[in-house]
Each structure stands twice: as structure tokens, then as C-alpha cells.
Amino acid sequence: MKGRQMLTEICKLQVKDVMxxxxxxxxxxxxxLIMDQLVELTSxxxxxxxxxxxxxxxxxxxxxGDLRRTLKASGEGIFKLTVGQMCNRNPRTISSNVxxxxxxxxxxxxxxxxxxxxxxxxxxxxxxxxxxxx
Length: 134
What we know:
It contains six helices and six strands. By secondary structure, the chain is α+β, with helices and mostly antiparallel strands. It has a three-stranded antiparallel sheet with strand order 1-6-5. Strands 2-3-4 form a three-stranded mixed sheet. The protein has one domain (19-130): CBS-domain (Roll), CATH 3.10.580.10. It has helices at 2-11, 15-18, 38-43, 64-74, 83-86, 100-108, and strands at residues 20-21, 27-29, 48-52, 58-63, 116-120, 126-131.
């Protein structure tokens, strides 16, 4: 009974119940150098940077995978590249009132799975980050 009850409660969760809040997010500006943002990329345990403008609107995302691909392609040129030059400007996103189960489905959807979804309000302002639960 306890397992079934727990599963029922999990199925009732919305993204807003499990997301990282704004003050916990790994954020940067598009003009920031990639190399200057390495600590932010790794320190928050998300494996990504959320690239924002001055109004906190999401511009794009830059992942640890993007870092590896950029390093392989650019070599020492990575020291001169900005996050804005290399970020994904069309990431998958979600709103906070979506069911957490639906967020997981979206994260696992083709063409390839993702580990996180930026949570945006209706004006594209970054509110939080929905991420895979380990």
C-alpha cells in the first residue's frame, strides 16, 4: 500500500514542485567568455548554463556536452569564444504548471534526450530549471 500511495503522490507533482529555483540557477550573459563561466557551469550540479539577458529572459543554453564539442572543434580558440556564440538558442523549455511526468516525457523525446528544461513564464522570463531526478 505504501508504494502505491507514494506513486500516486509522485504522479500528482507539477514542475513547480520539483524545479530548482531562480537563485539556484547557473546563469550567465551571452557576452561572457566560455572559459570565465566554467565554475558556474560545474558548481550548481546542473551540467548547463542558462544564458539570459538583463531582464532575465532566456536566450539559450550551453551544456557540458557543448563545452566538450566546442573544445574539440576550437582547441585553443575556445579562450576567445563567448557563451552566446556557442549556445543553443532554441532549447526545449516548459512552464511551471505542467505535470512533472509530462516534463520527463518531454526530456526523453526525440531527437535526443535532455537532462534539464528551463522553466519560463509566458514572457520568456527564466523562472527555474526542471531537471532529471537522480
